[in-house]
Backbone:
């Protein structure tokens, strides 16, 4: 076998390794992926540099449902045998759904880790509408057909890689991440240093929460093309997620001067929000929404405005923005989740539960799973506590699948486990995340993990750091208040807890109730 044929065989093996997890559940093979294999074969006859091996972080077998069902089933232990078996079967079914529907790492749900609208630049000769505002799967299929005929099109491979990143983020298909890496590397072999592929590698690293790598690739892309919108955007994301907020603000100003538009506007707004400048953040997002035309852009910006309104306790306004997002894209997950959260905070628990059940049925991610569990706890019906435990157990299954596909899930693990799981594991995860990046979110997670492990004196410094930038988040204030109370700072605790409930009294079905009890025990707000 020739070296070139051997390289292609290795790449075809990688396609098999990164196969859609749905296949392990008996689903029909994705015809778009078959087309990519054909494109791999079409390149065999053409001379090219030896292929680099880009192994998938986890095979379909590693990330498959059988291993997660056992983990998820742990919640049923201690019950009557029949009931326990029924719950294991129920959770096994949910674990299969995880394998098919999991959206990787916090890249959705309003998290700004690579949270650009789901639009990608078209490859040469392809209709941009195939990849922007339409069916992403159809766009990928068209790209693969194009690359079968034109396997030396470096721009086409770069666009395919970025499309895979978007598909993983929006369609819950983390197996696309290793495929994205392979496509982007092929683009760079064909055209070393091309900025679309470098920007794609930056976005892929951000999606996997590899933020130093994301920043490095973004800088490389900008060295090649200072106006690359995706690289400008990912550079802001990476700096934010590394806790380098001053640098992120400078990067946002620079991006706004070079490529003003929806992707840059939304990041600019978030940087301002992190510094407590809600007025500017809201103004910029409204400006972005007024200029948005693609359904994906409208859904993303309206969803961001909904999230901002919800954090400020403006529930009716939040619901209005979420409905606008869903009119543009009825499947947009952050808006579906946000609407359920706002409904719960606004007193419509039944609608909130229905909405969150819909979300976790399609995308069983830690955030929605925990919220649904807490909504069941708050309702407290005959079966609700068991239902809540089931949701919390599935967070562990999600974490295993995320890690199998190369996504760092420590922050998600820490937040969920601190309240509803293994507290020691929560602390280990929070410490590991703090070693990687010093953000307000990791400071809050570490503070709370230390608190639930009885290490309040150590926790207090991190709780204060989480609120030091001016970022307005009721959960952060609640955590700080509970830690202040535990360390004997009662006056400060009353202030923090009062602020949390004043800002967003429905921030958590369980947390808000705990805050009210703690505040009452402290003598009430003053």
Residues:
């Amino acid at each position: 076998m020739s070296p070139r044929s051997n390289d292609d065989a290795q790449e075809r093996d990688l396609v098999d390794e990164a196969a859609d997890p749905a296949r392990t559940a008996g689903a029909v093979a994705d015809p778009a992926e078959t087309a990519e294999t054909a494109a791999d074969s079409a390149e065999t006859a053409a001379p090219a540099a030896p292929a680099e091996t880009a192994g998938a972080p986890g095979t379909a077998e590693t990330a498959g449902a059988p291993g997660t069902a056992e983990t998820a089933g742990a919640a049923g232990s201690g019950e009557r045998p029949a009931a326990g078996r029924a719950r294991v079967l129920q959770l096994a079914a949910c674990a299969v759904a995880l394998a098919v529907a999991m959206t990787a790492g916090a890249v959705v749900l309003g998290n700004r880790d690579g949270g650009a609208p789901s639009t990608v630049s078209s490859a040469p000769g392809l209709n941009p509408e195939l990849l922007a505002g339409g069916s992403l799967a159809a766009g990928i299929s068209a790209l693969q057909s194009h690359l079968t005929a034109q396997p030396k099109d470096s721009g086409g491979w770069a666009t395919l890689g970025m499309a895979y990143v978007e598909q993983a983020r929006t369609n819950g298909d983390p197996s696309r991440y290793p495929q994205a890496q392979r496509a982007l590397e092929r683009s760079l072999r064909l055209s070393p240093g091309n900025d679309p592929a470098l920007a794609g590698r930056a976005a892929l690293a951000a999606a996997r929460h590899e933020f130093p790598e994301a920043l490095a690739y973004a800088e490389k892309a900008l060295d090649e093309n200072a106006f690359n919108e995706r690289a400008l955007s990912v550079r802001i994301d990476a700096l934010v997620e590394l806790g380098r907020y001053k640098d992120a603000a400078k990067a946002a100003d620079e991006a706004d001067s070079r490529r003003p538009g929806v992707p840059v506007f939304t990041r600019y707004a978030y940087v301002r929000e992190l510094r407590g400048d809600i007025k500017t953040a809201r103004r910029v997002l409204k400006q972005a929404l007024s200029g948005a035309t693609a359904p994906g852009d409208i859904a993303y910006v309206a969803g961001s405005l909904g999230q901002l309104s919800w954090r400020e306790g403006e529930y009716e306004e939040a619901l209005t923005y979420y409905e606008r997002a869903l009119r543009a894209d009825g499947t947009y997950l952050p808006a579906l989740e946000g609407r359920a959260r706002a409904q719960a905070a606004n007193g419509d628990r039944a609608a909130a539960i229905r909405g969150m059940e819909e979300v976790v049925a399609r995308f069983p991610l830690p955030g929605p799973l925990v919220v649904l569990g807490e909504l069941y706890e708050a309702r407290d019906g005959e079966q609700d506590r068991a239902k809540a435990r089931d949701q919390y157990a599935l967070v562990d299954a999600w974490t295993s699948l995320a890690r199998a596909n190369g996504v760092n899930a420590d922050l998600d693990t820490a937040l969920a486990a601190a309240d509803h799981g293994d507290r020691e594991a929560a602390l280990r995860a929070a410490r590991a995340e703090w070693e990687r990046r010093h953000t307000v979110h990791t400071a809050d997670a570490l503070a709370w993990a230390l608190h639930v492990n009885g290490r309040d004196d150590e926790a207090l410094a991190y709780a204060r750091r989480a609120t030091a930038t001016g970022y307005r988040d009721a959960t952060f204030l609640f955590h700080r208040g509970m830690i202040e109370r535990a360390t004997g700072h009662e006056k400060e605790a009353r202030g923090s807890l009062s602020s949390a409930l004043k800002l967003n009294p429905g921030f958590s079905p369980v947390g808000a109730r705990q805050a009210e009890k703690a505040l009452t025990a402290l003598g009430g707000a003053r």
Q: What stands out?
A: Confidence is low (pLDDT under 50) at residues 1-7, 9-133. Residues 263 and 321 are 18 Å apart (CA to CA). The radius of gyration is 23 Å. The longest helix spans residues 81-101.
